[in-house]
Amino acid sequence: MTSYNKKTVDDLSVAGKKVLVRCDFNVPLKNGVITDENRIVAALPTIKKLIGDGGRVILCSHLGKPKGEPKPELSLAPVAKRLSELLGKEVVFAADDCVTGENAKAAVAAMKDGDVVLLQNTRYRKEETKNGEEFSKELAALCDNGIFVNDAFGAAHRAHCSTVGVASYVKESAVGYLMGKELKYLGNAVENPVRPFVTILGGAKVADKLNVIENLLNKADTLIIGGGMAYTFLAAKGYATGKSLLDAEKIDYCKQMLEKAEQKGVKILLPVDCLVADSFPDPIDAPIAVENVDADKIPAGKMGLDIGEKSRTLFAEAVKSAKTVVWNGPMGVFENPALAEGTIAVAKALAETDAVTIIGGGDSAAAVNTLGFGDKMTHISTGGGASLEFLEGKELPGIACVDDK
Ligand code: ATP
Predict the structure, then answer these.
(1) Which residues pair with 8 in a beta bridge?
(2) Of 64, 132, 199, 247, most Cβ neighbours within 10 A?
(3) φ and ψ of 162, to 5 deg
(4) CA 265 → CA 219, 220, 258, 382, distances in Å?
(5) CA 104 to centroid of chain Cα atoms
(6) pTM tops 0.90
C-alpha cells in the first residue's frame, strides 16, 4: 500500500535553485478560452511557496491529447496568460514544439530568483506517454538535475516522463501542496477513516468499478450503490430490470459481492425504487416522461434512469449518521433535469452532514460544483481517474516515484 510519508515542498530548500514542477493544467478550453480554471487555481499554493522561497520555478504540464505532436489548439499559451494574471507576475511561456528546446533553455538560463517559466504541452512529445528515457533526462537537465516537485494529482496514475521518469534523474523530489492535500483526504479516508464510513458509488457500469467495489468492501461500513451500475446488483438479487443498463457477465460478481458484504457485516444499500422511462433520453437533456416504481417491479419495457423517491430518503438517512463519506459517480442520468433528483439528493445530504465529505472527481465533482454545493464539501478531488485508482487501493506511480521523508 502507498506510503504517504512523502517529502513535501516544506522539506525543500530552493533559494537560488531551479525547481521543475509538474502541474495539472489540463483545463477545458473552448476556442482558446479556458472554461474552468479550477486546476490552475489549485496549483497556486505550491507555485507561490516556491516563488516566495526564492526558487526559479519551471512549470510543466500536459493539456488534452495531442498524441505526440504539436497541436496549436492544445498549446499551454492560454494557461501561461491566466497564470500570470492569477500570480500577479510574469510567467514566461517557452513555446518550443519539442518542449525542452532552445526557447526553454534560453528562458531558464535568464531566470532570476522567484521567476516563473512554463514549458509547452509535454504531450507534444511522443516519448512523454511512453515514459521515454531521453525526454525524462531533458526535463531533468532543465533544473540542473536538481529538484523535481510533482503536484499533478490528476496525472499521478500515469507513468509518464514528466510525472515519473524525470524523478530518476534529479537529486531530490517532493510532492506539492495539492498532491499533499489529495493524499491527506483520500488517503486518510480510505486507510484510516473516522467511522461510520459510508461510500457511495454510481455511474454507468459495474465493470468500470469492480476493483473499487472490492476494495471499499474491505474498508467501509456501508456501501451505497446507485446509477446505472445498481441494476446489475438488482439483477443479482433476482429482480427483473427491464431495459435498464445491465452487465450480464457481472451478475455473478455482484452476487459474490453481496455475499461478501454479508459475511463482513458491511451494509450494501441498493435503490428500493427507481425512475423509469421508455428509453434513454435523446438528446440526453430532452424532455422525458418518467414514472417512480419499486425496484422489484420494473416493467419489462422500461429503463431505470435514476433512483426513486424512497431511495433518495434511504440514501440521505444513511449519510446522516456517517462520520466519513466518499462519493464517486452520479445516481442517475443527471444531465437530464427529470433524472437529476437522485444525484441532487445525495449532494444535498453530503452538504448538510458534519462528516468529512470527499468527492472522487469526474462527474460527481462537476455535479456538486454545478449544483452550488462545492464549498460545503471537505474535499473535491481534482483527479477523476487518479482518485478512482486510489479508491481501488492501487499505488499511483506519480506518488510512488517521489522521495520519502
Ligand atoms: P465520476 O466521473 O464521478 O467518477 P464516472 O464518470 O466514473 O463518475 P461513469 O461511469 O462515467 O461515471 O458514468 C456516468 C454516466 O452514467 C453519466 O453520464 C450518467 O448519465 C450515466 N448514468 C447514470 N445512471 C444511469 C442509468 N441508470 N442508466 C444509464 N446511464 C446512467
Answers:
(1) 175
(2) 199
(3) -80, -10
(4) 11, 10, 11, 32
(5) 30
(6) no
Q: Is 362 a catalytic residue?
A: yes
Quote the Cα angle for 396-402-404, to 5°: 110
| Dist. CA 405–CA 402, nearest whole Å | 9
Q: Which three cell numbers stand for residue 85?
A: 494574471
**How many other β-carbons are positioned within 10 Å of the β-carbon of residue 321?**
12
Per-residue pLDDT tens over the stretch 244-303: 999 999 999 999 999 999 999 999 999 999 999 999 999 999 999 999 999 999 999 999
Catalytic residue status for 39: yes
384 CA closest ligand 1 atom index: 4
Q: How far apart are CA 156 and CA 14, in angstroms?
A: 23
- Listed in order, strand segments (DSSP E) in 163-255 are 172-175, 197-201, 222-225
Q: What is the dihedral of CA 112, 117, 122, 125, to 10 degrees?
A: -70
- Are the C-beta atoms of 103 and 88 separated by less than 8 Å? no
C-alpha cell at 362: 469526474
Q: pLDDT for 75-94, tens place per residue? A: 999 999 999 999 999 999 99
Helix 341-352, helix 362-370: angle, nearest 10: 80
Is 228's C-beta closer than 6 angstroms to any atom of ligand 1? yes
Closest CA to 124 of 161, 87, 81: 161
Cα–Cα distance for residue pair 369/377, rounded to 1 Å: 10
Q: Closest ligand 1 atom, CA of 330?
A: 23
Q: Which of 246, 249, 301, 304 is nearest to 272 (CA)?
A: 304
Phi/psi at 156 (nearest 5 deg)?
A: -70, -15
- Ligand 1 atom 20, closest CA: 333
Residues 155 and 381: beta-carbon distance below 8 Å:
no
